[in-house]
Known about the structure:
With about 210 residues, this protein is of the alpha/beta class.
Amino acid sequence: MLEHLTVVTHPLVQHKLTLMRDKATSTAEFRQLLREISQLLAYEVTRELDMTTKRIETPMQPMDAPVLAGKKLALISILRAGNGLLDGVLELIPSARVGFVGLYRDEDTLEPVQYYFKVPESLEDRLVIAVDPMLATGNSSVAAIDLLKKAGATNIRFLCLLASPEGVETMKAAHPDVPIVTASVDESLNDKGYIIPGLGDAGDRMFGTK
Ligand code: URA
């Protein structure tokens, strides 16, 4: 079982994260770094997957070799910023099934509003990895996990780039069964729900919308 919170302190992850935080980093560089870092985080979030063995023949002899067990896992991108993480994770796990949860944050209430939901079938038989770069207030992450559980998912992990202490606590209170993997738990949230020191608006930085 993964811990409820895993902070990936690997030097490559931390170095890339610093480059991403820097406001002088361009949109193209930000996107490339996100792709690279998401593969390193994917390595962590897929620890302790169920394994089985398969009979194969090497050029030398037959052997029972380890392979992943069960149905293909499901990657769920929490739109829109989740797509930046999704691309890198998919490079590492190309056979994963992919779903999307569309939530936007009402800027006055900071509460999530759903506008899209499309996920693979048989979620109950799959490991489900929900991806969203920023675990800020935790409200939209909790709402996304609520929707995934309602759709049948029972084995869920949450992958993000940055988390706030408040976001981690909110997720732990609502979904203690969902392990979180992140590159950093930052200091705090500001009154607009942005992570401090953070990296700004992840969607704007990856898509160049500001
Ligand atoms: N979403 C972002 O993109 N950045 C934050 O700091 C918080 C939420």
